[in-house]
Design brief:
There is one protein chain. The protein has about 650 residues and is mainly alpha-helical. It has 3 domains: about 40 residues; about 375 residues, no CATH class; about 200 residues, no CATH class. Helix content is about 60%, strand content about 5%. It has 30 helices and 7 strands. The strands form 2 sheets. It has a 5-stranded mixed beta sheet, sandwiched between helices. Strands 1-2 form a two-stranded parallel ribbon. Strand 3, helix 22 and strand 4 form a beta-alpha-beta unit. The protein is globular and about 85 Å long.
């Protein structure tokens, strides 16, 4: 498509045709309502489709198709399993509670009732909100710059691997982008409506606390450009009042039934406040693990992530990335109709999101797991950076370079094509069935009637939660997150399911109490992963499928000898229906690091047993075990760098 000024002229023939159709429709309304012909003009309307609107509609259509292609068919790692469970079966997710995500639950349940796959039904509403957010930004950019500049900039950013992987899933990022677009729209309105601006800012903050970084933009929009007067004070008061009203969405966390999963004790005002302020993590902490990475490493990761997203992966180094971001911010002209102080506030917001917020992170970005966790927070700065990218495209579009229109058009098409190919090559949520496959197999491993499995990490805990509460699998298994065991509300939840579970905060102490109880001493106990050094050194364990069976102190040699352990291991593996090709992390370790870690659980147990037979001089038995037709002895593959064994 050629980017030329001829597209800015209205299509008069088309508009005249639409106008004629509108008058025919209006005449029909007039006949139905028995009005006289003089009132017909009140029903007539004009459908003059300007090219600017056409670019925005086209952008939204492409993003919708991209969303439908990328939507997951199985539950994903990270927080997606938790959010999917809450949307489909009710409850409250982890701090700060995300009340507006819970409100998407009825839409997800409706889609599931209509026959949509459970994981897809849960992911569709937040992903659609993400499409609406990007399309809303394209609408703003078409008003500020031009339709082509806005559409190209939005498509370039929204089709990046960063945006596709994290927006088109059951996560908070799609609605976050929608609220960001609404805040930008209200803040740049002339004049801004104080109460409405404060309300959407409060709702955005209630949805995700990172929205507080839009505070400079909100204040610049409402701050009087002259000496303050009484009316100006009322506007400031209106913004504050609206913000408080928006924050009242947090109160809804205490409403409703128990649901399938309810993080925290929200029955008291103190518990609700603790949940909102993230006391389980720490207000500025991103997880239960704490590290002190260098700010330079955090900033370098953000810069390379943003520059790679707007350059289709062509620029992924720190210095060139900084130059690219600086050029975009420097060349972009001030948006049409936006006051200078508001435009500078947009710049301040971008700097705060890109360099201020990452400096607070307590996650080391040098491992694939941590990098995946952190890159989700790049979506908001990427969203704001898209404004400056559109401005830069518009400046190039207005340049007097010979043949600039075809050059810019062909260049944009090539860049978008490379971006889409790169995103496809790195994998989308639809390419990752491995996390759910692992959760299903974990619940298939223990024999009935009852077993307890201890494990850690979101890519185990939440997919297992989804498999049990949504898919109805493995109800005979009590899965215990060893880290969450430190919280009294979590222990109370476990005791409601299994009253004999001890009320102690340490996993090894809980295992000891289970062994000492007359009714629980013979309960099979497993580890999904060796989650601590004490667990490594103090618990004897043997492989059983993808789990580790903990050997109790009163175990007999007949029950836990090599032959008995091998029989149980082979029987567990025979119950699996998993193909190693399902684990996208083996092909895309950066995009799907979680399944790369989980896949090795299928081979570790078999390797241990094979080594046992080798040490006993039974090489034939070891070879037979290693070459058997089982999901646990898949062909070897390279372990992704940074993946835990």
């Amino acid at each position: 498509m050629m980017l030329s000024r001829k597209f800015s002229e209205p299509r008069r023939v088309t508009a005249r045709g639409f106008s004629t159709i509108s008058h025919v429709i209006a005449f029909g309304f007039d006949r139905v309502r028995n009005r006289d012909a003089a009132t017909t003009r009140h029903w007539s309307f004009s459908l003059r489709l300007s090219p600017r609107v056409g670019w925005t509609v086209g952008c939204g259509t492409v993003l919708t198709l991209l969303m439908l292609w990328a939507l997951p068919r199985h539950v994903q790692g990270g927080d997606a399993g938790e959010f999917s469970t809450v949307l489909l079966r009710g409850g409250v997710p982890h701090p700060s509670g995300y009340p507006l995500m819970r409100m998407l639950g009825p839409f997800a349940r409706l889609l599931e009732w209509l026959g949509l796959n459970s994981a897809t039904a849960a992911a569709f509403p937040p992903a659609a909100a993400g499409v609406a957010g990007w399309t809303g930004l394209a609408t703003l950019l078409s008003r500020w710059f031009s339709g082509p500049a806005g559409a190209i900039a939005v498509l370039l950013a929204a089709s990046s691997s960063l945006a596709v992987v994290h927006t088109f899933d059951c996560e908070v990022w799609g609605p976050q982008l929608l609220f960001a677009a609404i805040v930008l729209s209200e803040a740049t309105r002339a004049p801004p409506q104080a109460l409405r601006l404060g309300l959407v800012f409060g709702l955005a903050t209630a949805h995700h606390l990172t929205a507080v970084f839009f505070a400079p933009l909100v204040m610049a929009a409402i701050w009087p450009p002259r000496a303050p007067r009484r009316a100006d004070g009322m506007r400031l008061l209106g913004v504050g009042a609206g913000w408080v009203v928006g924050l009242m969405a947090f109160v809804t966390l205490a409403w409703g039934s128990e649901g399938a999963w309810r993080w925290g004790d929200l029955s008291t005002a103190r518990g609700l406040l603790a949940h909102v302020l993230r006391e389980d993590y720490g207000v500025f902490s991103l997880g239960l693990h704490h590290a002190q990475p260098s700010p330079w490493s955090l900033w370098a990761r953000v810069v390379t992530s943003l520059s790679g997203s707007i350059s289709a992966g062509r620029i992924t180094s720190v210095v060139p990335g900084l130059l690219l971001i600086g050029v975009c911010c420097g060349l972009a002209p001030r948006a049409r109709g936006v006051p200078p102080r508001v435009w500078w506030a947009v710049m301040v917001t971008f700097v705060a999101l890109t360099f201020g917020f990452p400096a607070m992170h307590n996650v080391d970005p040098r491992t694939p797991f941590a990098a995946w966790i952190l890159e989700r927070f790049d979506l908001l700065p990427l969203f704001v950076l898209t404004i400056f990218t559109a401005g830069t495209i518009e400046r190039l579009r207005r340049s007097r370079i010979h043949w600039q229109a075809p050059i810019l058009g062909v260049g944009s098409a090539l860049l978008l094509s490379v971006q889409l190919l790169r995103t496809h090559g790195r994998g989308a949520p639809r390419h990752e069935p491995g996390v759910e496959a692992y959760a299903r197999d974990l619940l298939r491993t223990p024999d009935e009637p009852f077993a307890i499995v201890f494990g850690t990490d979101d890519h185990r805990t939440f997919p297992v939660l989804f498999a049990q509460e949504v898919l109805g699998l493995g109800r005979h298994v009590l899965y215990v997150d060893a880290q969450l065991l430190a919280h009294s509300w979590y222990r109370a939840r476990l005791r409601r399911r299994f009253p004999a579970f001890p009320d102690v905060p340490k996993p090894l102490a809980a295992i000891g109490h289970l062994w000492s109880g007359a009714s629980t001493r013979d309960t099979p106990i497993y580890l999904a992963n060796v989650f601590s050094r004490p667990a490594e050194s103090q618990l004897n364990r043997v492989p059983e499928g993808i789990l580790w069976r903990v050997v109790p102190p009163h175990a007999t040699a007949a029950a836990f000898g090599v032959d008995a352990v091998t029989r149980r291991h082979v029987a567990a593996c025979a119950r699996y229906r998993t193909n190693p090709a399902e684990f996208a992390g083996m092909r895309h370790p950066q995009t799907h690091p979680w399944s790369g870690d989980l896949w090795h659980a299928y081979r570790d147990g078999t390797k241990v047993l094979s080594d046992w037979y080798q040490r006993r001089g039974q090489g034939d038995a070891a070879k037979q075990l290693s070459e058997g037709d089982s999901a646990c002895v898949a062909p070897p593959a390279a372990r992704p760098r940074g993946t835990a064994p």
